[in-house]
From TrEMBL:
The chain crosses the membrane at residues 7-24, 44-63, 75-94, 100-121, 133-155, 161-183, 213-231, 251-271, 283-299, 368-388. InterPro entries: Efflux_drug-R_Bcr/CmlA, MFS, MFS_dom, MFS_trans_sf. Residues 9-394 form the Major facilitator superfamily (MFS) profile domain. This is Multidrug effflux MFS transporter. Keywords: Cell membrane, Membrane, Transmembrane, Transmembrane helix, Transport. It comes from the Bacteria. NCBIfam families: efflux_Bcr_CflA, PRK11102.1. It comes from Nibribacter koreensis. It is a multi-pass membrane protein. CDD domains: MFS_MdfA_MDR_like. It is found in: Cell membrane. Belongs to the major facilitator superfamily. Bcr/CmlA family.
Length: 411
């Protein structure tokens, strides 16, 4: 693979990974306008975010077997087309219930890009390089929240919230062209991979019972849910409690997203001296400490809007040390079943994200406490799972290596 090819592949994979961040973040500044236009409450509008996360979680389980059976591109085309049609449906909806339903369909389509991108990383790059590639993709994803809410704020203020979904449809149409003309096929279709429910569940079970996958996908999925609590709670916290405008909220979201950009770059440097396992542990310990300060500080009413932003920035800066390394470690044992593994990993992450966003909505009490409390609990839970499961993974890896079998067959 030439350097130019490497660049274009990363660019398209990164674009695929940004479909969901844009879908989640770009309409956040429009929450008050959507609630007013559809004659409902912001907490009801928040359920459209929950529906999107549920759709991503469920949809990834669908695409995993399809990507293994039909190759990477055919299911990807189908998903992107569904996403575009559902985005147009969101733009022309007239009730919050219809918006929630369209967002669910939008997620079912958009999640094809998430699963395919992760599987293609496993297809196209050596195992030893995947953590670095995932760090690069995390950087691309991290840039999205800088752009999406800011653009969304101005679009909502100028053209109305409906225009946000039209823009999402147009962006995805451009990505679809890039997939067709630039992206390699990756792993070819495998007719031996059955789509019968029993065979599909058997493949998922083969992946799920692998200790390394189970531990690191749980760690990554639960710890990565912290930012979802922030995403779900921040429109209410900043626009209702601190009374910032739609445009100001977009800029606040963009500033905090800088925290997600720097940490993947630090991860690149740390990987030269430390293992992914060591980096994940250090990152979770750091976030647990900051999370505890966040919760107590909000409870004790320490923070102004500025100091709260500083603490949120510090918390989010640890995210890029956990997500790319847990993704790489989760997928490392698999080649033939990489699509199913990527689907399970992504489904778990988004499923937890959906629960977390719903929890923030249900715990709503007019303060920032539900948001920061759920953020902190996600990190603490991820750390506990890592500490309890680390020795199990080491024992299994040692037994597999001594048996002379590959990780994917020695199950």
């Amino acid at each position: 693979m030439t350097r130019k090819q490497h660049f274009y592949i990363i660019l398209i994979l990164g674009a695929l990974c940004t479909v969901s961040p844009f879908s989640i973040d770009m309409y956040l500044p429009g929450f008050p306008a959507i609630a007013q236009d559809l004659k409902t409450t912001i907490s009801q509008v928040q359920l459209s975010l929950t529906a999107y996360l549920i759709g991503i979680s469920a949809g990834q389980l669908l695409y995993g077997p399809l990507l293994d059976r039909y190759g990477r591109k055919t299911p990807l085309y189908a998903g992107m087309v569904l996403y575009i049609l559902a985005s147009v449906g969101c733009a022309f909806t007239s009730s919050v219930d219809a918006l929630i339903a369209m967002r669910f369909l939008q997620a079912i389509g958009g999640c094809a890009g998430m699963v395919a991108a992760q599987a293609l990383v496993r297809d196209l790059f050596p195992v030893k390089e995947t953590a670095k590639v995932f760090s690069t993709l995390t950087l691309v994803i991290a840039v999205s929240p800088m752009v999406a809410p800011t653009v969304g704020g101005y679009v909502t203020a100028t053209f109305g919230w409906h225009a946000v979904f039209i823009i999402l449809a147009l962006i995805t149409a451009l990505i679809l062209l890039g997939i067709y003309f630039v992206l390699p096929q990756g792993k070819p279709a495998d007719p031996s991979m059955s789509l019968k429910p029993k065979a599909v569940m058997s493949n998922f079970w083969l992946v799920l019972r692998h200790p390394q996958f189970l531990v690191y996908s749980l760690v990554g999925g639960i710890a990565a849910a912290g930012p979802f609590a922030y995403i779900a709670g921040s429109p209410d916290v900043f626009m209702n409690i601190y009374k910032v405008s739609e445009q100001q909220y977009g800029w606040i979201f963009a500033i905090l997203s800088v925290a997600l950009i720097g940490s993947p770059q630090l991860n690149h440097l740390f990987l030269r001296k430390y293992t992914s396992e060591q980096i994940i542990k250090a990152g979770l310990l750091y976030q647990t400490f900051i999370g505890a300060l966040l919760v107590y500080g909000v409870y004790a009413d320490w923070y102004s809007i500025t100091s709260l932003l500083v603490m949120l920035f510090l918390f989010l800066s640890g995210q890029g040390l956990t997500s790319p390394n847990s993704s790489a470690l989760s997928l490392a044992p698999f080649s033939r079943h990489a699509g199913s593994a990527a689907a399970l990993m992504g489904s778990l992450r988004m499923g937890v994200g959906a629960l977390v966003s719903a929890a923030v909505s249900l715990l709503h009490n007019g303060t920032a406490l539900p948001m920061v409390l759920v953020m902190a609990l996600c990190t603490v839970t991820g750390l506990v799972i890592l500490l309890l499961g680390g020795n199990w993974v080491k024992r299994h890896t040692s037994n597999s290596n001594s048996g002379g079998l590959s990780e994917e067959t020695n199950l």
